Amino acid sequence: MFYSKKLGTILLLIATMALSGQSNARSFRGEGSDLLMGVGARAIGMGGAMVAATDDIYSSYWNPAGLAELNTHQITVSKQLDSKNTTISFLSIALKNKWLPINGYKTSFALSWLPRLHIRANGNFKSTDFESIFTRYALPGLPEDFNGELESKTRDTRLTFSITPDTDARWALGINIGRVNCKTNFCGVFANDPGVYTAVSTDAFSYTIGLGAKYRYNKNLTLGLNIKDINTNLDVEIIETRPTGTTIETYDVEFPIDFTFGIAYQYNPSLLLTVDYQLVNGEYGDDAIDFQILRAGLEKKIGNMNYRAGLLVPIKLKSESSEDIIKDLPVPFFLSAGVGLKTRYGSLDFAIYPNPIASYTKQTLEISTELSLTVDF
Fold this sequence. Notes:
12% of the residues lie in helices and 57% in strands. It is mostly beta strands and 377 residues long. A hairpin with a 6-residue loop joins strand 6 and strand 7.
């Protein structure tokens, strides 16, 4: 408790100094895998339509079943090149299992780390502002109107396991188990308490489960299914410090389920076509979310180069706190593109894409880039 009060006092002093010179200017920036585009330059270049096509280390995010198709051990790192909040987008090591053989089956493991969400906001936000609604997902319990500085980080560390038959591998199954950690700090003034500087520190964690499956219908057509955040509840602790003292509150926040179904069609040996439908639905704390997204992608191989294009179409982006924001998007759909170099030592991939959330908040296309390096060993 002494530590909490000491921390709160420091935060209050910072808030007082920051707000004393604050103008009406506002800023908001969000980064991370939960902002619709996912992870990995190959996948982003194909619009995130990867549930039936993923077959490498990035399967631990897109569909754990795809990890069973690994031909080598892999290690990868991916970065959003224009990032201002996060250092890396994805870090993982994947191993073909040789130490725990299962007769008649191939298995693979992966250990991965990724930032699901990293938000920085500064300024005066009203309850109807999208930024206010969005930051209340990062900091459960934050009042609807606030004026101050906020930073929130959500990190995910997950272990993935997959299995497929040694011969006639028409199907594959996968599971991942992750630990999600959330940390948020806010310094400022709430509308329901004008003039009273408040410091809020939130810690939360949860264990989450994801399941995936792939089925090769024939040599050209593959079906994929991925379900994330099954039965996930955040255990939240909020420490709030005001001049009158410090209070501590704890409660649970339920995650919505993320469901994606996909189709991959190998049109010919050099051309891959993919389509995914994603549904994020359920309660998030006291709110209800209904997101529906259509994704499509293509990948053309020419020698050791891969050329990619993608399409992301938001069908519905609605929550209980807001109307469907699709009508206010600067464009009705988002195009992405990418290129990759594949060698016997690994791959280097690059993608360029408009960031949907940043484009919405700025009401203009906000272009981002992603670079991924994967090493085979």
